[in-house]
Design brief:
alpha/beta
Length: 217
């Protein structure tokens, strides 16, 4: 734990991510739980070539560099898997409300157990397909899953408020994927009106070809 704690503390300091000591300890504990649960349920790759706390947890935290999560803001984590990026961000921003959704029941059961163990009161996990979500509108939608951007944008037309934002953690060559999402915006009530991206490979070699993609109305 001390090594992970020191590593995370250094990364946050170097990259301007504000995190209290207690939050850092919770993030380290979440990493431990994620690895424990991963032996029972396939939440992340079981052939890890890098520290989970960097490749998965800190990777999720990088969203906070480009988005200021507000008190009372409602955030949806779409296809959360093992709680990424929602749980790390919920730890960092305890006054923001997070809803984690995944269609795989075992993954949501693991998320619920980890949320309870961590004592997080600002995050809920729900077993549901995104198409089944009704009567809820969010300020922000997050996704770390591999669904194409066009598909994610189509979901956002009913889930995201008009001045909301979709933020995705993606990898690989994205020019064609982004172009398809922009071309399809007439089908999705004008969303996305714009798409920006922020490469993060300079932060760590682990994030080679990784980008944060931001879609707005």
């Amino acid at each position: 734990m001390p090594n992970d704690l020191q590593l995370l503390e250094r990364l946050c300091r170097e990259h301007g991510i504000p995190a209290e000591k207690n939050a850092l300890k919770l993030l380290v504990r979440y990493t431990e739980l994620l690895e424990e649960w991963n032996h029972k349920v396939n939440l992340i790759s079981r052939k890890e070539d890098a520290p989970v706390i960097v490749k998965h947890v800190f990777h999720s935290m990088l969203i906070s560099r480009i988005h200021d999560f507000k008190p009372g803001e409602k955030v949806l984590d779409l296809g959360t898997g093992g709680g990424l990026p929602g749980i790390p961000l919920a730890i960092l921003f305890p006054e923001t409300s997070f809803l984690l959704v995944d269609s795989t029941g075992k993954k949501i059961a693991a998320c619920k157990a980890m949320i309870k163990e961590l004592g997080l009161g600002n995050v809920m996990a729900v077993h549901s397909r995104v198409e089944e979500l009704r009567g809820v509108i969010f300020d922000t939608v997050l996704s770390r899953q591999v669904a194409p951007l066009e598909e994610l944008c189509s979901y956002c037309t009913t889930l995201l408020k008009r001045d909301g934002v979709l933020i995705c953690l993606k990898g690989g060559k994205l020019d064609e994927e982004i172009a398809k999402a922009v071309m399809a915006r007439e089908k999705h009530f004008g969303f996305p009106a714009s798409v920006d991206r922020l490469p993060i490979e300079e932060i760590d070699p682990l994030f080679s070809e990784k980008q944060i993609v931001i879609a707005r109305w």
